[in-house]
Amino acid sequence: MGSGSRGAGLRTSVWLAEKQGGTPKRKAEGHTGEGALDRERIVAATVRLLDAEGLAKFSMRRLAAELGVTAMSVYWYVATKDDLLEYAVDEVCGEMALPDLTDENVDWRDQIRDLATEYRRTLVAHAWLPQLLGQYLNIGPHSMAFADATLAVIRRSGVPPYALTGSISALFQFVYGYATIQGIYQERCRAAGISEEEYYQQVVDVVSNRLDSSETYRESAELVEARSGESIGEIWEHDFAFALETVIAGIEVMRDRSREQQP
Question: Would 131 be classed as within a structural domain?
Answer without folding.
Answer: yes
